[in-house]
Write a structure and sequence with these properties.
Blueprint (H helix, E strand, L loop, with lengths): L52 H13 L5 E6 L6 H12 L7 E5 L11 H12 L10 H12 L5 E5 L4 H4 L10 E6 L11 E5 L5 H12 L11 H10 L4 H13 L5 H12 L13 H10 L4 H9 L10 H8 L3 H13 L4 E4 L2 E3 L2 H42 L8 H4 L22 H24 L3 H10 L1 H7 L2 H17 L5 H16 L3 H18 L2 H17 L3 H14 L3 H17 L3 H17 L3 H17 L3 H17 L3 H13 L4 H18 L3 H15 L1
Parallel strand pairs: 1-4, 1-5, 2-3, 3-4
Antiparallel strand pairs: 6-7
Length: 713
């Protein structure tokens, strides 16, 4: 009887040839990284928050009614009404009540196309709560289960900003007594009533509070001081319709233009909102766009151009390097332009050096771009920005996984690494300088890079679409985000099929899409993708790509325990490539497949050959992996002495590679190969300690096994 476990396994697992009495101790909750801080993800509240006394009193009263159940409050209202500011102000006042931590997510629910998937948000929340990245599950339901387990006894404050739908919100609700979730949305989300939601509709600010907010922002005397400014400020406030977003833009315009009077500002806004003839610019049709139109007239040519072109797509954030590429100006100049737009509240600096539009302003700016710049210039500007994202993403990908083979002209044009201090000579601005910083950069820029794929597809830049997907390979392979992975690579497959000048691209995209499905355990979908990849590569004679596709088919069969079929795939793949590294990896896979069939002697021969090939490359990490497989094969054959020797060597080499996840797994295997009870206890203790340091769920079952050993002794 033979069995095999592959991929990421959560919870206690026993794999053995003969089992007598067996007791499993399941972990109650996922393990956390030791010393993980309590999450404090709330952004700071706005400095000039004004009014909302009635709404805040109502929210406070709701919390006092019953502290033994989770609370859910939905703040709704039109765009620009101040929902986010109200939620953050209230959350800041209450944060000390929630010792379990505070979570925050912008759900980007302006439209269905930009809305964050629950899985994407849950992955971020789980990391914030202390789950180590390698153990965050790919399956959304499992993510939901883990989130509920981790938050079952924690008084959490959760702010879910800009929600699009009930389905987006429900998986993100903590269930612990005393927890509070604040949701903001333009939609009423009436379906949340079943989850116990209380709805609060935000009205516009009243005249007095609107004028007070204006005066605070402008730094001018407030109404009622007898300075003679009351009538002008009140007139501007009326033009803003009580909408805090419009009031903020008007007030900050006055703060920047110190010689601008209240009366002049009101006249500018009146002109912007007035009926127009065929030769005049389109005026604002509501207080927000009318105020934006008045501020827009203050912009210099470059600032106005950035305001327009930066809004052509719903980017998660704009940085100075990205803005420089968009406008084709120096980076320092782009940084000044972004700061100028932020000074007029036309964009918001939501993190140091990162800017974004309110979606109402983005819609206004996008209309201006199409009207003033035209479709041709819009496409050229977007193309420059996409090429910037591609160059930087490819440089980061090459840092994170330097040993893999790459497809696409962008990789051939990457600057040469001179080997000094991990730098790349003349690398694109913002390029990370080593693997760790490159991986962190990928996570930070993930939303922009995903949007870059959608944008390239929207504008018909097929060659950029699939190359961006190729540059996202290491991010998705190591970090997951499978829903984004599938969405982007479906576009990549379609784009590559249209790029007849690079026929190898289609197979590459099919293969990478197959791995996304494989990560979710969708074996049939993965098989279809890998078969399509092999067929596409056969058509264009791309043997290396075909070898990868056939190898990937074998990996699916290996995961399914179809060892003989897996071995056939690996043999076919080996006949298709003469690449030394590919050959070494295929020998390793073949050894594992043979071991699964119980052909222990043949498996050992293959694995020893794979070890020698890895050593000759050299590839010390994969050499250590092969040594681990040799140990597993020896264990399966019942040769504990050989297993112990191989695993000891694997542990020694893996320690040099600083690979803690693999070292924990090797310690578990060494416990199985131990020659005595004391030796077994020592390796189990080492494995438990390593898993605990990683925040691995396996730690609980190992500690339970050690406790059982103590009771028996």
């Amino acid at each position: 009887m033979h069995n095999d476990l592959s991929g990421t396994v959560h919870g206690p697992v026993v794999q053995a040839q003969h089992i007598g009495t067996l007791t499993l101790h399941e972990a109650v909750v996922p393990a956390l990284v030791p010393g993980a801080p309590v999450p404090r993800l709330l952004p700071p509240p706005t400095r000039h928050f004004t009014d909302r006394h009635a709404e805040l009193e109502r929210l406070t009263a709701l919390l006092e009614e019953d502290d033994e159940t989770p609370r859910l409050v939905v703040l709704s209202g039109p765009g620009g009404i101040g929902k986010s500011a109200t939620a953050l102000h209230f959350a800041a006042r209450l944060s000390s009540r929630y010792d379990g931590g505070q979570l925050h997510a912008d759900l980007r629910g302006d439209s269905a196309s930009t809305a964050q998937s629950p899985s994407t948000v849950l992955a971020r929340f789980l990391r914030a709560l202390g789950v180590a990245a390698p153990y965050v599950p790919a399956d959304e339901q499992e993510q939901i289960d883990w989130f509920r387990s981790l938050t079952a006894d924690r008084r959490l404050l959760v702010v879910l900003d800009n929600a699009h739908s009930v389905a987006q919100v429900l998986p993100l609700l903590p269930a612990a007594p005393g927890s509070l979730t604040l949701v903001t949305s333009r939609r009423r989300l009436s379906g949340l009533v079943r989850a116990g939601a209380h709805h609060v509709e935000l009205p516009p600010l009243g005249p007095a509070d609107a004028t007070l907010l204006l005066s605070r922002l402008a730094g001018r005397p407030p109404a009622g001081t007898g300075t003679g400014t009351d009538a002008g400020a009140s007139a501007v406030a009326r033009r803003c319709g009580g909408l805090p977003l419009a009031l903020c833009m008007a007030g900050e315009r006055l703060a920047v233009r110190t010689h601008l009077t209240w009366d002049q500002l009101e006249r500018d806004m009146a002109a912007a909102a007035a009926p127009h003839d065929a030769t005049s610019p389109e005026p604002g049709s509501d207080p927000v766009t009318a105020t934006a139109d008045a501020s827009y007239r203050d912009l210099g040519p470059d600032e106005a151009r950035l305001y327009r072109l930066g809004a052509l797509r719903p980017w998660a954030g704009l940085t100075a390097p990205a803005a420089a590429a968009l406008l084709d100006v120096p980076e320092a100049r782009a940084a000044d332009l972004l700061e100028g737009l932020a000074g007029l509240h036309l964009v918001e600096e939501y993190a140091p050096g990162r800017y974004r539009y309110h979606d109402l302003l983005r819609a206004d700016a996008e209309r201006r771009a199409l009207r003033e710049d035209g479709a041709g210039e819009a496409a050229r500007a977007v193309g420059r920005l996409l090429r910037h994202h591609l160059r930087t993403a490819a440089a980061a990908d090459a840092r994170v996984m330097p040993g893999r083979w790459h497809l696409g002209p962008v990789y051939h044009r990457l600057p040469v690494d001179d080997g000094s201090v991990g730098s790349i000579i003349d690398a694109p601005s913002g390029t990370p300088t080593d693997g760790a910083s490159a991986a962190a950069w990928q996570l930070m820029e993930r939303e922009n890079l995903v949007e870059a794929v959608r944008t390239a597809d929207h504008f018909g830049f097929d060659e950029l679409t699939w190359q961006l997907c190729e540059a996202l390979w290491s991010l998705f392979l190591r970090q997951g985000f499978h829903h984004d992975w599938i969405a982007t690579h479906r576009l990549g497959v379609q784009a590559a099929a249209r790029c007849l000048d690079v026929p190898e691209a289609e197979g590459r995209m099919h293969t990478q899409l197959g791995f996304a499905h494989l990560g979710l355990g969708s074996f049939e979908e993965a098989e279809r993708c890998f078969e399509a990849a092999a067929e596409a590569d056969r058509r264009c004679g791309h043997r290396r790509g075909e070898a990868t596709a056939v190898e990937s088919q074998g990996l699916v069969r290996l995961r399914q325990g179809r060892y003989a079929e897996a071995a056939e795939c690996f043999e076919r793949a080996r006949a298709l490539t003469d690449d030394p590294r590919a050959g070494a990896l295929l020998e390793h896979h073949l050894g594992r497949a043979l071991s699964g069939q119980g052909r222990h002697a043949e498996a050992a021969d293959r694995l020893r050959h794979a070890r020698d090939l890895m050593r000759a490359l050299p590839d010390p990490y994969n050499e250590a992996r092969v040594l681990t497989s040799l140990g597993e094969a020896a264990l399966a054959a019942g040769d504990l002495g050989a297993a112990s020797g191989h695993l000891a060597e694997a542990a020694e080499r893996m320690a040099r590679e600083a690979a803690p996840v693999q070292l924990a797994a090797i310690a578990e295997l060494r416990a199985l190969a131990a020659g005595s009870e004391e030796e077994r206890r020592r390796f189990l203790t080492e494995a438990a300690e390593r898993h605990e340091a990683l925040g691995s769920p396996t730690a609980a079952s190992l500690r339970a096994e050690l406790a059982a050993m103590s009771r028996r002794s």
